[in-house]
Amino acid sequence: MSADLEDAKDERLAAQAAGGDRDAFDALMIRHRQAVYRLCWSATGNAADADDAAQETFVRVYRSLSSYDPSRPFGPWLRKIAWNCGLSVRRDGNAGFPGVAGGDPPEAVDPAPGPEEAVAGNEEGRRVADAVAGLPAELRMVMVLRAVEGLSYGEIALAAGIPAGTVMSRLSRARKRLLDALGEGPGGGS
Amino acid sequence: MDCPETQGLLAAFHDGELPAGDRARVEEHVRGCRECGAMLADLARADRAFRVPDPGPAYWDRFNARVTDRIKREAESPGVAVLRPKDGWMRRQLRYLVPAVAAAALVMMVVRYGGMRPGIPAPTAPPSTGGRAAPESAGERMAGGKPGSLETRKAESGPVAHRTSPPVPADGRIAGVTREGRNRPAARPLPAGSGETSRDRAAAPAAIGAPSPPPTTLRAGPAGSPPVPAADGMAPGMGAGEKKAAGAAAPMAESQLSGKTISASGRRTAEEPTAGSPCEEARTLSARNRLREAEDVQRACLAGELDAPSREKGLVFLAELLDRQARFTEADALIAEIRRRFPDSLPLDLYLRRRPAVQKRSMEVPATR
User: Fold this and answer.
1) Which of A26, B45, B125, B354 has its CA at 20 to 30 Å from residue A174's CA atom?
2) CB–CB of A31/A10 below 8 Å?
3) If you average pLDDT over residues B292-309, what whole number do you get?
4) What is the interface pTM, i.e. ipTM, of the complex?
5) A-chain residue closest to B314, CA distance
6) Is the pTM of this model over 0.90?
7) What distance in Å separates the CA atoms of residue A128 and residue A134, rounded to the nearest whole number?
């Protein structure tokens, strides 16, 4: 990918991609695919469905580029599509997207534990992982967007279609559940 | 600022959402208050604990190619998008209802004025050969018609089947106009080793670490078919690797070029050979919970010529079919065999992770034939 594309703003890349520039579309994917995957994962709660939804997100983005208005920010538009794709997969259970000609097999995802678990292999890591997986999708979503992506309350509210106050309350609930899983509730931590 | 007031602002402080004045006051309080300081530290701890499992670099290496492949295949598999779970219930119902009503109306006209009965293929040219046969759907509008889009290039390069609003099938059948579009292969006989290529499985991205099947296994049609430069739906500038990945969809483009048309509903016309493979059939049947038939078909698929990765995945799928029929002992034996033949089988590992859930479901819901 050229440095020009790497430095280009999302909106410009989207406009180029809408004009048929595959490299621009690739650049957009490279730039956003991990965030999209995480958001899809927050909606679905498992890797296979997150994979399906993340792919579908970019398929929809590609199909919708011609209707995208480059004067509007690309990120919120993309996040909305990703979240909706994630919810669609979740709503359909394990069926996933029909795909084509029988559909994609679930992409293999790294089954290995993350570095923390690998090193520690501890009970706490598993408890936290369970707690994260056990969070309702709406709570996972705000946590992904805040704790991982670093979005503001306003941006999260936009992506989730909820008031900023609801973002705060969901964050609070999610953090409390995680702290409970860590073994020390709020105020009791070190 | 006292503790209750501070604690009410701690989360916003932690998230950087407080205005400068409040931020300074909270900061000052926290510096001198152990309890509030501990609560603030907890917020950071919770955020650190929250992690999304990353699928790993191999996954990301293949991601773009897989999306490209999916775009290609969706563009060339009419009728599939109709079933996409995209919108609300009402809209989904309308998507099925509108084409079905349109089909019914046309069939009635044909029966009344054309002296034909439903179920008999119309001798006239299928509507798909004449370009768009139905009003543009929301999905198509989203895709737009800008020059350069896959859909537009398809339309320019030859016959195109409408993807999201299938109109009347050429053969006049009404029932399940959209469902059949998706499950088309299930209605066909399933000759083992019929010479059909295993398009879906071979075309689907291989699991990480498994080599992609050679292109020759991906392309149907007569041997030595000429390349299809215009109808391949590739965007300008697409690299060789992408073209290889996207080449999975080439059989349909070839069939279109060779005059084998696809009805606007996605159903192939009567004279056209099926593009479905036994493996594809098995997936379709399985999705419809016709497990015994799916198993038979999958066995037929495995009896044919398959490259190693496809065989590996096919065997794993067969094991799943056995599990879904609560035939656990047979599945165990098959899994042992897969393990013996493919000691590091990632598809098997992945299946084993979800096998307990599959087995549990199979005991709750008896399989239907």
Assistant:
1) B354
2) yes
3) 84
4) 0.81
5) A105
6) no
7) 9
